[in-house]
C-alpha cells in the first residue's frame, strides 16, 4: 500500500525539514508556500500606522508519496522532529492511503510509478 503525506510547517523550518527528508533519502516531494490559520488565529501587525489583524499565517506545505506504511512512519517522524519548536503554530501532518498512481512517461503504475528509475 502506498501513502501520501501532507505536512504544513512554519516557514522558518523549511530547510530543517528538507534536510531531514534528504538524510532519510525521501525523494519525490512537492513544496508549496501557503497561508492558513489554526489555533493561533493569526497575529496583529501595524500597517500604515493602524493595527491590523492578520488572520492567516504563512506556512510551507510538503506533499510526499511513499511506497509503504514503514516509509510513511519514518517520513512523518522525520518531519515532526525537524519541524518541532514546542510553540503553537508548529503545524500539522496528514497521512492518506493512495489508491493508485501512474507515471505518465512510462505508464508504470502502483509502486513502480513512485519509485525513482532511470
Automatic annotation (TrEMBL):
UniProt-listed InterPro entries:
N-reg_PII, N-reg_PII-like_a/b, N-reg_PII/ATP_PRibTrfase_C
Q: Which PROSITE patterns does this entry report, sorted A to Z?
A: PII_GLNB_DOM
SMART domains reported in the protein's UniProt record: P-II
- Molecular function (Gene Ontology), one example: ATP binding
Enumerate the Gene Ontology biological process terms. Answer: regulation of nitrogen utilization
Which domain of life, per UniProt? Answer: Bacteria
> Can you list the GO cellular component terms from the UniProt entry?
cytosol
Give the protein name, as stated in the record: P-II family nitrogen regulator
Amino acid at each position: 500500500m502506498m501513502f501520501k503525506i501532507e505536512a504544513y510547517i512554519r516557514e522558518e523550518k523549511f530547510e530543517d525539514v528538507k534536510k531531514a527528508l534528504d538524510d532519510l533519502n525521501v525523494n519525490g516531494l512537492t513544496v508549496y508556500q501557503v497561508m492558513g490559520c489554526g489555533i493561533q488565529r493569526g497575529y496583529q501587525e501595524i500597517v500604515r500606522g493602524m493595527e491590523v489583524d492578520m488572520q492567516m499565517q504563512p506556512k510551507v506545505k510538503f506533499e510526499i508519496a511513499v511506497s509503504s506504511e514503514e516509509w510513511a512512519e519514518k517520513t512523518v517522524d522525520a518531519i515532526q522532529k525537524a519541524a518541532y519548536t514546542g510553540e503553537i503554530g508548529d503545524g500539522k501532518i496528514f497521512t492518506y492511503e493512495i489508491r493508485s498512481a501512474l507515471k505518465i512517461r512510462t505508464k508504470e503504475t502502483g509502486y513502480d510509478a513512485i519509485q525513482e528509475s532511470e
